[in-house]
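Per-residue structure
===
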Amino acid sequence: MKFGAMLGILFVVLLITLFEWPKINPNQKKEKAAFVALTAMGFLLSVLLLYFPEMPGPPKLIEAIYKPLGKILEK
């Protein structure tokens, strides 16, 4: 069941890549690297959330980082 969902996620990522990659200018190496990095992180996060649904998401990470900063700024 989860393997099929993972294949579905992979299929969507491949479709996005096949649609967007030709639109990126071949001379824009940094833009291509950013696209690959963001796409890979999104794929990894979606697969991790598929197998570990109780895993805290990005808002929890941001809250953990900025909560102490908010306390300092309140003073």
Summary: The chain is about 80% helix and 0% strand. The two ends are 51 Å apart (CA to CA). The chain has one domain: 2-74. The chain has a mean pLDDT of 90.
